[in-house]
Design goal:
With 141 residues, the protein is of the alpha+beta class. The protein has 6 helices and 4 strands, in the order H-E-H-E-E-E-H-H-H-H.
Length: 141
């Protein structure tokens, strides 16, 4: 992480000063000690201070996203510094995944109508069946 942020901050390859947005996306559970060291990045100073005492400033083009499962290990200081957006997966549903998948297919225009009709007709019923029935695993992978 420190190498990526150092390269972003100094515009070292593969980053450049012409990039208007440089994103660091961190996906996973929060470690209580690690997130405390990130507090200086998230406060007004916007500086990552390493154990070696090296300080890496965040530039205007740098952005960070923490995608986490829970805030169990986050302190009030961390929570107050972060802009938190809670998205419940049951509220979103599967449609955004279907739309994204269709958008990235080579023959999406030719297949779109057929695939959307198939998803509408079958996917909800299959999901409902699996969530309402306890199925036994016969062969574990």
């Amino acid at each position: 992480l420190s190498i990526i942020m150092r390269n972003m901050s100094s515009n070292s390859s593969p980053y450049s000063a012409t990039q208007t947005s440089k994103w660091v996306v961190l996906d996973g559970d929060i470690d209580a000690i690690w997130i405390e060291s990130m507090n200086t990045v998230m406060d007004d100073n916007k500086v990552l201070t390493l154990v070696s005492n090296e300080r890496i400033p965040l530039t205007e083009s740098m952005r960070m996203i923490f995608e986490i499962h829970s805030l169990r290990h986050a302190t009030p200081a961390t929570v107050s510094r972060a802009g938190i957006l809670y998205i419940n997966d049951t509220d979103i549903g599967y449609q955004p995944y279907v739309d994204s998948w269709l958008a990235n297919r080579n023959n999406a225009d030719q297949e779109r109508h057929f695939l959307l009709e198939a998803f509408d007709k079958y996917l909800h019923k299959v999901i409902e069946f699996f969530s309402s029935n306890k199925l036994e695993t016969i062969v574990k992978l």
